[in-house]
Design brief:
This protein is of the alpha/beta class and 303 residues long. It is built from eight helices and ten strands. Strand 1 and strand 2 form a beta hairpin. InterPro entries: AstE_AspA_cat, Peptidase_M14.
Length: 303
């Protein structure tokens, strides 16, 4: 059974345990300083919009999205999301860097829609969940229990059928094994089984509609920036069979994952490993940018 310090092993959390967990969460960085200020600097060249608002007690967060200035309804949409898990830093910074460094290169070719920090409360606390101990990245379905997920789905609703590519930027960190997976199993009253952390970048394709050539195009681009995660001794990455170099598959929509929220032909979830001895924070951010660009380039060329 899990030895997590909150709850009784084998019993799912109730309100008391969730309140105890919430009482231990502390703000460690600033969404306003790190994210909102970076978005504001993009305003001269992009359309910035608020698509929602989170109110958690005394904490209040505007949810912001970025669009290209020359939006054209005749063009397909590429969707970039980051910070669905707020603690996964390069997902947020990579999305912002893509807009700053590369997005204008796609003017007149595709419409670019970026939500760089879907979960600002969790960003500030370097956590996976929202304050209700709900994982937004398992909550992309109707009547979502996560405000973060519901707001993003509402933003995308009007273009949902026109999204050609959706890339959702994530990280797999050492704290997945030391904190977040133990917390998850404790919350759900299940035993914790250590699984290990893959050393390197990998992708999660959609098992319902796989696009292997698209995934490999992203892998090949990212490999120029950082190393690709090998399979473990069982031929797996985090318990899932490797279907190609650096690629595993999940049923994205069935699991309520962000990357499954549209009808995009091309979709993937990136997973950078920032705790690797062979990768720096700058490399992780650059890997996310490379993944986005490679994904858009492939999708546009194979519409």
């Amino acid at each position: 059974m899990s030895s997590y310090p909150i709850g009784t092993p084998g019993e799912p959390w109730g309100e008391t345990e969730r309140a105890e967990w919430l009482s231990q969460q502390r703000r460690q960085r600033s969404y306003e300083t790190d994210v909102l200020s970076a978005i504001e600097r993009l305003r001269p060249h992009f359309n910035i919009e608020q698509y929602g608002h989170l109110d958690y007690g005394t904490d209040s967060y505007p949810l912001m999205a970025i669009r290209n200035r020359d939006w054209c309804d005749d063009l397909p949409v590429v969707l970039v999301t980051g910070g669905v898990h707020g603690y996964e830093t390069s997902g947020v910074y990579g999305a912002l860097q893509f807009v700053e460094q590369q997005a204008m290169n796609y003017a007149g070719r595709v419409n670019v829609l970026v939500a760089p920090c879907v979960s600002p409360w969790a960003y500030e606390r370097i956590h996976r969940w929202n304050p209700n101990a709900v994982d937004p990245n398992r909550s992309f379905y109707p009547n979502s229990p996560a405000q973060e997920s519901a707001a993003l789905m509402q933003l995308v609703a009007s273009v949902r059928d026109r999204v050609l590519m959706h890339i959702d930027l994530h990280e797999t960190t050492d704290t997945d094994e030391t904190e977040f997976r133990p917390a998850l199993t404790a919350r759900d009253g299940k035993p914790f089984a250590p699984d290990g952390i893959p050393d390197g970048f990998y992708l999660v394709d959609d098992s319902a509609r796989p696009q292997p050539e698209f995934q490999q195009a992203v892998i090949e681009a990212v490999e120029k920036v950082t190393h690709i995660a090998p399979a473990d001794d069982n031929g797996e990455i985090i318990g899932s069979r490797l279907v190609a170099r650096g690629v595993i598959q999940y049923p994205l929509s069935q699991l309520g994952l962000c990357a499954g929220m549209t009808h995009a032909r091309y979709k993937t979830t990136t997973e950078v490993y920032p705790d690797s001895a062979g990768a720096t924070p700058d490399q992780c951010n650059a890997a996310q940018v490379a993944a986005v660009c490679a994904g858009i380039d492939y999708a546009q060329a194979h519409r």
